[in-house]
Design a protein that fits this description.
415 residues, alpha/beta, 2 domains, eight-stranded mixed β-sheet, two-stranded antiparallel sheet, 10 strands, 38% helix, 13% strand, globular
């Protein structure tokens, strides 16, 4: 709260800078303001102005409290079940550079409010189930595979593949589809990209739904790739660890980078060992991928773990993830995304975080929540990392329903 006193002879209290969004919660045992009788330096007229100001602030606070209570009452009424499976009504490929071409698709209502889904990894690609978080009668649902992922080409390509390239790609896709502005939905790495995109283009974003917050800071990477998460999943960690010789285990991201890119390997010099080199690269990719797939759910999910058996999926997932992580997400500073929250503070946002997320532990969502208290913050008590876990999925659907209701209240139709 910003309350300033103009130290003139009249002792006038200036409340014009006050913002009700920043009014702290009042502890019942204490008063927000001291007794007027304890302010001898303030004139009688100043005390009257202060009294009026306090009354106005109290009235605003009551209004805010009632509004928040109304929102809480409405929240249980929001739909929380996934929508039925649907098929795209349109799809295509967009050439975004001399090298890269992106797969994109649209489903739902062609005249609905646009929402773009930013997948995780990076490198994971999209899947048909991603469409089910959105009301297909209200939303125009846009999915696309980021550079090198899914059906985008070239597959697993790292050249000209950075966060800033992806942000440019999102804008090119928006313009290609003739969309003036859209809602942005992203989880895990998708939350990283959603934050970076919205901070770069805040006027193009009508709302944000973020899940499994990943700010790509060193402590987050160290937690997952340097032994922190191993304390919870030692059985899954040991194959990941044992693939790397002991003398390289001080930096697993770098050690895997050498193998995923087949750099500095003696076998690379000999055509005779080309097949072996490729097999070695796929082996590294599968082990990297399985480590994440085995830790992504609160309860083991065999279907998710089996993704690590796919050569195509694991190669793109592991190579692109590792490429981004060894380059620190191509972000200029460790706290870049938190440092730029002011640019997007005005955007209506819902943050969904599984309490037992091991891949993207809650410390990052908590840091984002503290930096951005205006955003709705939902902690799912019985979920890990995956968007497909029942608790996470329910809150993600509800978040989109909430933003849908806000858009409707503001006159957005879905003809």
């Amino acid at each position: 709260m910003r309350l300033t006193q103009n130290m003139t002879s009249g002792g006038i209290i200036n409340c014009t800078a006050f913002s009700p969004l920043h009014l702290p919660i009042i502890n019942r045992k204490f008063s927000l303001f001291p007794s007027l009788s304890t302010l001898p330096s303030v004139s009688a007229s100043g005390r009257r102005n202060l009294s009026t100001c306090v009354q106005n602030l109290s009235h605003r606070r009551v209004q805010r409290f009632r509004a928040s209570m109304d929102l809480e009452k409405e929240s249980p009424m929001l739909r929380r079940d996934l929508y039925p499976s649907i098929e795209p009504y349109g799809s295509g490929f967009l050439k975004v550079s001399d090298l890269h071409t992106l797969y994109w698709e649209q489903s739902g209502n062609p005249n609905g409010h646009p929402v773009v889904f930013l997948h995780g990894g990076p490198g994971a690609g999209t899947s048909p189930s991603n469409r089910r978080f959105f009301d297909p009668e209200f939303y125009r649902i846009i999915l696309f595979d980021q550079r090198g992922a899914g059906r985008s080409t070239p597959h697993a390509c790292l050249d000209h593949n950075t966060t800033w390239d992806l942000i440019d790609d999102i804008e090119k896709l928006r313009e290609h589809l003739g969309i003036p502005e859209w809602q942005v939905f992203g989880g895990s790495w998708g939350s990283t990209l959603a934050l970076a995109y919205s901070q770069s283009h805040p006027m193009k974003v009508t709302g944000l739904v973020l899940r499994g917050i990943f700010l790509l800071r060193k402590k987050e990477l160290d937690w997952f790739y340097e032994g922190g998460a191993a304390a919870i999943f030692p059985d899954a960690w040991e194959p990941f660890r044992d693939f790397i010789p002991e003398n390289e285990r001080g930096d697993f991201i770098t050690a895997y980078n050498k193998r995923l890119n087949a750099q500095n390997l003696e076998t690379q010099k000999h055509l005779l060992y080309l097949t072996y080199r490729i097999s070695f690269q796929y082996a590294a990719a599968k082990i990297w991928t399985k480590w994440e797939m085995m830790t992504a759910h609160l309860l083991p999910n065999d279907e998710n773990i089996k993704k690590g058996d796919s050569d195509a999926f694991s190669l793109a997932f592991a190579r692109i993830e590792n490429h981004y992580f060894i380059n620190k997400g191509f972000l200029p500073t460790d706290s870049f995304l938190l440092d730029n929250i002011e640019k997007i503070r005005h955007i209506k946002t819902v943050i969904v975080q599984g309490r037992y997320d091991v891949c993207c532990p809650m410390m990052s969502a908590w840091d984002l929540h503290k930096a951005w208290p205006e955003a709705e913050f939902k902690v799912v008590p019985d979920a890990g990392h995956s968007a497909n876990e029942p608790g996470n999925a329910a809150e993600l659907v509800a978040a989109n329903e909430l933003l849908k209701n806000i858009l409707k209240a503001n006159g957005v139709s879905h003809n």
